[in-house]
Design goal:
With about 190 residues, the protein is α/β, with parallel strands linked by helices. About 45% of the residues lie in helices and about 20% in strands. The protein contains 5 helices and 10 strands; from the N terminus they run βαβαβαββββββααβ. The chain has a 6-stranded parallel β-sheet, with helices on both faces. A two-stranded antiparallel ribbon has the order 4-7. The chain has a two-stranded antiparallel sheet with strand order 5-6. Helix 1 packs across helix 2 and helix 4 packs across helix 5. The longest helix is centred in the middle third of the chain and has 19 residues.
């Protein structure tokens, strides 16, 4: 399913379609991924999706890739880490962990684990789906024009993003190569 840009009703229907798909799959532990390039609107969508999934009675653990990336050159490393330390263990045991990054200090932060009792892992961020396709997750892919994404990222992260935009974009190209992933593609 693909939604047109700027259509709030279509966005809402798409979010409900994700919730319905999760309900129909009726898995004890579920994985929902919100992926796309920087500035596409993943964080806002993940917040709305978390609220809808919470309302269905699922115990949602929301993990943001921004908390995991080990700095501006760590997109591939974070995608690999969430696969091996977070997603796969969570789906098999109900507990996963991941490292964190202190962006202010440019140093590793304290590791985090999924909250006890979580039965749905909502992983949001660029590269979140790149290493876990074999697990049959529900994938929501967000797209936006390049100029829009760049402006949103600069508005969000300030001049620091502008300095790293080319480096980050090259990593996106490497990690996100191939056909666009997603059960649902949203144009934002």
């Amino acid at each position: 399913m693909t939604t047109p840009p700027g259509d709030e009703a279509a966005r809402r229907r798409a979010l409900c379609a994700v919730v319905d798909r999760v309900a129909l799959r009726a898995r004890a532990r579920e994985l929902v991924l919100v992926d796309g390039r920087s500035g596409a609107g993943k964080s806002s969508l993940a917040d709305d999706l978390r609220d809808l999934l919470d309302a269905t009675g699922r115990a949602v653990a929301l993990v943001r890739m921004d908390d995991v990336y080990p700095g501006w050159t760590g997109l591939a490393a974070a995608a690999s880490e969430v696969s091996t330390r977070l997603v796969r263990p969570f789906l098999s045991t109900g507990v996963g962990c991941h490292g964190t990054w202190d962006w202010q200090q440019s140093t590793p932060g304290s590791p985090r684990t999924t909250p006890p009792g979580a039965d749905l892992l909502l992983l949001e961020g660029c590269g979140s789906s790149s290493h876990v396709r074999d697990l049959d997750p529900v994938v929501v892919w967000l797209e936006a024009p390049e100029a829009t994404r760049l402006q949103r990222a600069i508005d969000r992260d300030g001049p620091e993003y502008a300095r790293w935009a080319r480096v980050w974009s090259a990593q996106e190209d490497a990690v996100l190569r191939g056909p666009l992933p997603g059960d649902l593609v949203l144009q934002t």
